[in-house]
Amino acid sequence: MFFKRMATGTLTWQTLSKMALRVAVVIVASSAVSYIHILSILEAQTKEQLEKYALQRSQTETSLFTLAEDNLTVLKQELLRQLKERGEQDPREEFDRLFVKYKDGATHNRLENFDRQRQASIFIDDEVNINADVRRRVLLFYELAGLKQKIKVKKSIMLSKHSFHVKKSS
User: Fold this and answer.
1) Tell me: the pLDDT tens digits for 70-101?
2) Contacts 24+ apart (CB under 8 A), 100-106
3) Which of 33, 54, 92, 120 could form a disulfide with 145 if both were Cys (CB 3.0 to 4.6 A apart)?
4) Residue 138 contacts residue 95 (beta carbons within 8 Å)
5) Where are the domains of the chain?
6) How far apart are CA 144 and CA 162, in angstroms?
7) Cβ contacts of residue 71 below 8 Å, gap of 6+?
């Protein structure tokens, strides 16, 4: 009943309606402005955090690649130095003691004296002509990979478990 009397167009009803509409518009507008402001602040913070993360990640990745490059350079120098020191002799006996040609035609480590936890795994495809040069190179890498503590360098070399693949020369 009260609302029926108010709805008849009294001055009070008109005033209250206009005030309620204005308050509602102010509340909606201030809520929208607050939402947009908070959203822009969150977006800026997220962008800033993402930029910091990307910069930090790129620096970490760069340092890892630099370390890997340094390690490969040291390993290459050591391989070349030791290849030169060993000369042209054919290490057939030592090679045959450590490796054997299996039924699939590929040459692998002999299982009876192979420790997967401490030694490099060797695989030489059956299409590779295993000559004195290949035997020297395989044995040298095998020794350097398995006995990394014998390499006297100031930088650490990551050589834990490697597979050395000799490919057919073209």
Assistant:
1) 888 888 888 888 888 888 888 899 989 888 89
2) 101/126
3) 120
4) yes
5) 12-70, 87-170
6) 11
7) 155, 156, 157, 158
Closest residue by Cα to residue 79 from 128, 139, 130, 129: 139
Q: What angle do CA 6, 11, 15 make, to 5 degrees?
A: 90
State pLDDT tens for residues 32-85: 999 999 999 999 999 999 999 999 999 888 888 888 888 888 888 888 888 888
DSSP codes, the chain: -HHHHHTTT-HHHHHHHHHHHHHHHHHHHHHHHHHHHHHHHHHHHHHHHHHHHHHHHHHHHHHHHHHHHHHHHHHHHHHHHHHHHHTT---HHHHHHHEEE-TTS-EEE-GGG--TTTS-EEEE-TTS---HHHHHHHHHHHHHHHTGGGS--SS----SS-EEEE----
Q: And the tokens for 78?
A: 């050591």
Phi and psi at 39, nearest 5°, equal -60, -45
Q: Which amino acid, one-letter code, is at 114?
A: F
Mean of per-residue pLDDT scores for the chain = 80
